[in-house]
């Protein structure tokens, strides 16, 4: 009887952790991205994508993102200062560039957006990202 109780508790616990690991639903105006780069404080600088770790976004190298997330997660990422990491998180669709990168800072886009607004954020050119997770990435950050 005791073994059955332990097995039942283990099954319930395992099922609870599987449910807790499901990714958060993506809002209609957002997109989930994975981006390699470097961290300095709450600023993430997009790094060069390598063939083995391409990421899921076409943000140009050197783009600065303002990371938002739980304090524990942010301190884990901050401890990796000087090392390449890949962050995964949610960004507004309007902040992710559309079109095809032709290289040399040239991008071909489908056309201008209607109803767009000028970024008047006090953060300047930093695009916000709600960080959900991270993992180490290959490479090193410039010092």
The name of the CATH topology of the domain at 29-99 and 123-143 is OB fold (Dihydrolipoamide Acetyltransferase, E2P)
Treating each run of at least 4 consecutive H or I residues as one helix, how many helices? Answer: 2
Name the structural class: alpha+beta
Q: Examine the secondary-structure arrangement and name the CATH architecture of the domain at 29-99 and 123-143.
A: Beta Barrel
How large, in whole angstroms, is the Cα Rg?
A: 19 Å
| Name of the CATH first level of the domain at 29-99 and 123-143 | Mainly Beta
Percent in helix: 10-25%
Could you give the order of the helices and strands? HEEEHEEEE
Global shape: globular
Strand arrangement, major sheet: 1-2-3-7-4
Quote the distance from N terminus to C terminus: 61 Å
Please tally the β strands and state the result: 7
Which runs of at least 5 residues are low in confidence (pLDDT < 50)?
Answer: 114-123
Described by strand count, sense and barrel closure, the largest sheet is: 5 strands, mixed, barrel
Beta content comes to: 35-45%
Mean pLDDT score, rounded? Answer: 75
């Amino acid at each position: 009887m005791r073994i059955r109780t332990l097995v039942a508790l283990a099954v319930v616990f395992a099922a609870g952790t599987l449910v807790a690991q499901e990714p958060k639903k993506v809002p209609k105006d957002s997109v989930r991205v994975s981006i390699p780069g470097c961290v300095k404080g709450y600023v993430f600088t997009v790094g060069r994508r390598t063939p083995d770790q391409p990421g899921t976004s076409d943000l140009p190298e050197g783009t600065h993102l303002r990371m938002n997330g739980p304090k524990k997660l942010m301190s884990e990422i901050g401890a990796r200062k000087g090392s390449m990491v890949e962050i995964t998180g949610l960004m507004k669709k309007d902040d992710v560039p559309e079109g095809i990168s032709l290289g040399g800072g040239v991008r071909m886009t489908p056309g201008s957006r209607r109803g767009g607004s000028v970024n008047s954020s006090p953060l300047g050119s930093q695009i916000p990202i709600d960080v959900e997770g991270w993992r180490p990435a290959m490479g090193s950050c410039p010092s």
